[in-house]
Amino acid sequence: MDPHAIGPGLLHWTTPHPKIRVEVSSYWLAEARVLLDPLLPPGGLEWLREAGPPEHVILTNRHHWRHCSEIIGAFACPVWCNELGLYELEDESGFEHVRSFRAGDALPGGIESHAVGALCPDETALRFGLSDGSACLAVADGVVRFGEEGRGDGPLAFVPDSLIADEPAQVEAVKRGLREAYLRLCELEWDTLLLAHGLPLVGDGRQKLRAFAQG
């Protein structure tokens, strides 16, 4: 899916992930020149060069390194990752450009970072406003959308239990921790939910995330 606007200055696209072989979502905040969880768009580095170029990349967790090495190689921009996930990025090309943050820190582009945890220590949500007064919340892997044939248009869901926890006995505790975190995030003001795995929910994301978290 080519980059397309889902809000003023906010673009979304999907690209097949080279490792898991399914379409995943990436986002571009045009005015701030910030990429969230990026795989390269269909237009590749040239599209990013013409659109920006990017000045910052922000990850919702360490697993979303995706095409950061290629982006760093082209633009030498910093990649921001929750400090609790840095250990897994040390061998990545471009690691010298990684910058750490703690949940609660303010990030480039006026983005707020909020702790989610439960699934992994560095699971983070990012909240930011748009020029029309609306706001977005970007989440990592704790909640996803599947849909038929991997279209990403299904209801909000957890990933399969085998990906939730190593031990089956831990699965329900992790889900409970995620639900509690999402209910806290639903107390904030925002409208659109940006998913790393699945299509975004534009305009009614907070209502749908609250309903999901309430079970």
Layout of SSEs?
Layout: E1 4-7, E2 10-16, E3 23-29, E4 34-36, H1 44-51, E5 56-58, H2 68-75, E6 79-82, E7 98-101, E8 106-107, E9 111-115, E10 124-129, E11 135-138, E12 144-145, E13 156-157, H3 161-164, H4 171-185, E14 192-194, H5 205-214
Parallel strand pairs: 4-5, 5-6, 6-7, 11-14
Antiparallel strand pairs: 1-2, 2-3, 3-4, 8-9, 9-10, 10-11, 12-13
Question: How does this structure look, described?
Answer:
- By secondary structure, the protein is of the alpha/beta class.
- The protein has a single domain, classed as Ribonuclease Z/Hydroxyacylglutathione hydrolase-like (Metallo-beta-lactamase, Chain A), CATH 3.60.15.
- It is 21% helix and 26% strand.
- It contains five helices and 14 strands.
- It has a seven-stranded mixed β-sheet, with no helix packed on it. Strands 8-9-10-11-14 form a five-stranded mixed β-sheet.
- A hairpin with a 2-residue loop joins strand 1 and strand 2 (10-16).
